[in-house]
Specification:
The protein is mainly beta and 152 residues long. The protein folds into 2 domains: 98 residues, Nucleic acid-binding proteins (OB fold (Dihydrolipoamide Acetyltransferase, E2P)), CATH 2.40.50.140; 37 residues, no CATH class. It has 2 helices and 6 strands. Strands 1-3-4-6-5 form a 5-stranded mixed β-barrel. The radius of gyration is 19 Å and the shape is globular. The chain starts with a strand and ends in a 30-residue tail after the last helix. One of its GO terms (molecular function) is DNA binding.
Length: 152
């Protein structure tokens, strides 16, 4: 059996971080994902997915993701049920086990030149600030590998 999903979209709101009674971090957010095709009016429709992230990755998502930022994730679909007003409600959500932050905090949608705005923010490091914990500082620098380092 296979239960796998990969999504790329933008956050519709800031992530919400909570902790279980056992102290395990859980972060939730919604991701807006445009469909590949257009409808009869020539417009792209958008699907909205509820995302759940656990443990350390949950804390990273809460610290580094904001509304409007682009993110890619891999995970699986999960179905759960709960009771509301005597009715059984079904919820389908994506549990993400890998999240890639594709735009820096405060970065808006791409401008007409195709370059992301706020690029200088990504590499700034200030002691004690959120940027100093940015795992993507220095991203985009060339990596050189010796022939011995390659697995093929």
């Amino acid at each position: 059996m296979i239960n796998s999903t990969t999504l790329l979209g933008r956050l519709t709101a800031d992530p919400e971080l909570r902790y279980t009674p056992a102290g395990v971090a859980v972060c939730t957010f919604a991701l807006a994902v445009d469909r590949k095709f257009t409808n009869a009016q020539g417009e792209r429709e958008t699907d909205f997915f509820d995302i759940v992230v656990w443990r350390q990755l949950a804390e990273s998502c809460a610290n580094y993701l904001k509304k409007g930022q682009q993110a890619a994730l891999e995970g699986y679909l999960q179905t759960r049920y709960y009771e509301r007003d005597g009715r059984r409600v079904k919820v389908v959500e994506v549990v993400a086990d890998n999240v890639q932050f594709l735009s820096a905090p405060g970065q808006a949608k791409s401008n007409s030149g195709g370059q992301e705005q706020g690029q200088g923010q990504r590499n700034r490091t200030t002691t004690g600030s959120r940027e100093s914990r940015d795992p993507f500082v220095g991203e985009g620098k060339e990596i050189t590998l010796a022939d011995d380092d390659r697995p093929f």
